[in-house]
Amino acid sequence: MRLSLLILASLVLAGCGRKIPPPDDALQTAGELRSAIDARVGSIESARFLDVVVDYFGEGERVKVRQLVLVQQPANLRVQTRVPGTEEILSLLVSDGETFAMHRRDTNQYFTGEATPQNIARLLPVDLSARDVTRVMLGGAPWDRFDAEGAEPRMQWDRRKGKYRYWVPTRDDGTLSMWVRHTDFAVEEVRQLDTREKVVYKYETDDWKPHQNIALPAWRRFVWPDRNLDFSMDVGQTQLNVELPQLLFELPPPAGSEIIQVDR
Is 148 within a domain? Predict the structure, then answer.
């Protein structure tokens, strides 16, 4: 019995200590990794995400809606939200990366302002700029969020995950990291920790599927623990490099709507 326990313990310890070495052709600098991530996303001009099921948990309530999401490089974004169980449009958000506009049909309110993470978060709980939403939907990196910290980026091979870790120290002495696959330089996870290594914000992916020789996640999740927000997107179908007229990313105020300028 004692021998069996010793053998079991040694196997557990061996499994816990498993490390994944970097590949022979591993990238060496943060700049090289950034270029590789951008080159990957640069192969996609546009995308249409159909039958997106959004599951939202926040402030003690759960809301599930359906969306149509359109993105076009470099920063065009359209998010169309439907009333659950119907084809009726509840809200429509568009952005060109610099400004955004959103109309809520239930209240006939029209919101507009800069496409900053703070402004977009009031209407779409992802804590990303509109430009970063476009990048993330294509499996890329939220560069606006990383660049906003104003710190020199760093890169290392994470032997536990078997992926690159690209990270920067944050202004509040925490860290903002993302993990990137070596095979195709896809961003699989983003995580911000405070000084106590407590999760402040995280973005994670799953169910990666091939589309025209490039893989994209069918499932994405955004979490803000301190704000009690948990927001996930499950994509039913993805279409790449489709023709999307510029008109789809424009939204003038509907007649009679209340126009609300959203400040920074």
Answer: yes
In a domain, 164, yes or no: yes
Here the CATH number for the domain that contains residue 253 is 2.50.20.10
Report the number of distinct structural domains present in the chain: 1
Phi, psi angles (nearest 5°) of residue 242: -95, 155
Q: What confidence tens digit (pLDDT) does each residue in 202-234 have? A: 999 999 999 988 999 999 999 988 888 898 999
Q: Tens digits of per-residue pLDDT, 18-34?
A: 799 999 999 999 999 99
Kindly report the pTM of this predicted structure.
Answer: 0.85
Confirm if 150 and 171 have CB atoms less than 8 A apart.
yes
Token pair 């995400």 in the structure block, residue: 49
Q: What's the one-letter identity of residue 45? A: E
Quote the radius of gyration of the chain (alpha carbons, Å): 21
* Residues 207/217, Cβ–Cβ less than 8 Å: yes
Q: What is the dihedral of CA 46, 51, 55, 61, to 10 degrees?
A: 120
Closest CA to 35 of 155, 150, 115, 148: 155
Q: Tell me whether residue 82 is in a domain.
A: yes
- Domain assignment present for residue 64? The answer is yes
